[in-house]
Amino acid sequence: MADRLTPRAREIVAAARDLLEESGPDRLTMRTLADRLGIKAPSLYKHFPDKHAVEVELVVQLLTETAEVLETAEAGAPGSLEALAGAYRGYALAHPHLYCLGTERPLPRTELPAGLEDRAALPLLRVCAGDTDLARAVWAFAHGMVVLEIHGRFPADAELDAAWKRGLRALHP
Amino acid sequence: MADRLTPRAREIVAAARDLLEESGPDRLTMRTLADRLGIKAPSLYKHFPDKHAVEVELVVQLLTETAEVLETAEAGAPGSLEALAGAYRGYALAHPHLYCLGTERPLPRTELPAGLEDRAALPLLRVCAGDTDLARAVWAFAHGMVVLEIHGRFPADAELDAAWKRGLRALHP
DNA sequence: CCGTGAGGCTAACGGCGTTAGCCAGCCTGG
DNA sequence: CCAGGCTGGCTAACGCCGTTAGCCTCACGG
Hints:
Two copies of one chain form a homodimer.
Chain A: H1 7-23, H2 30-37, H3 51-76, H4 81-94, H5 96-101, H6 116-127, H7 132-150, H8 160-171
Helix pairs in contact in A: 1-2, 1-3, 3-4, 3-6, 4-7, 7-8
Chain A binds a DNA duplex through loops.
């Protein structure tokens, strides 16, 4: 992960992330990205083969930070699914554009650091005591809640805290 | 809904749907859509103000058919959440591109037929005996399972039937 | 001192959504 | 019977997108 990118490439990814989080995926453009760095769009191709490669690095950040957030939550309240779920929800809602970018398309698994995907999944699997079916169900529930909330799918007056509690209580009594 | 669109507009929407379901959102282009109809792209603007308006009609189809599918499932097995969930999953996986198009962005509520959104939600609310928090949790679970499966997020060897059962059993004992 | 690679640049291509403006044919009212 | 307007096509073009080709400058190592 240290030598995964050159320093300049890291600057580019950082700018891409700022752009994405500030303005959403529509404004994450090779031209606006270059603008922000004070260079021209074609110069970006000296550092990344295409736009997709830049986005992959953002997905790596999402997965890494998700893993960190979940590990921290687990350390603070071992065995607590509520703590894990709260951390997941909080992180996702704090970075909605990044969350959607990394989530609403197939995972570029071959381009990811080895073990990263598993690392992000482990805390939940531990709190489910190794029950993978349950872990997948909980993950689907949490992901569904987050994306539906991000996209404004619930009624404006929906009590989402209550729905979270209701779901978590059912899934992990 | 009958006079919602002119006949020609309905043909355009039908072609758009074919294109979307066959080839995915990237190929749902004003030019390819026009091609399929034997006309040129600018002519489409005689029937719709912009591409978004065409997509809204596809979302209307998704919501309408979802409502129908759920109502049918409910009629066949009243009170069964499993039947509802199976119908939902089956429909979504049969139309993955349409499902994602209608689901992975804010709902254009003001442009939808009145009552359609509620109608699609009602069967689930009934099976949850009016418990809206539970209904939202179940919806989030089902949506999460479907989109994660569509985007290949689960491991290739995941037993998704088991995860569905596990989640449904927990949420609706 | 020269060569080379790193990292910029401009020009351009094809595809996208969209607009402006033109035109053929049909339907209707006087 | 024909004049006018509406319907639904068309071409040309604009500005944006990702991307490629090809050029230039400069630092650094042999």
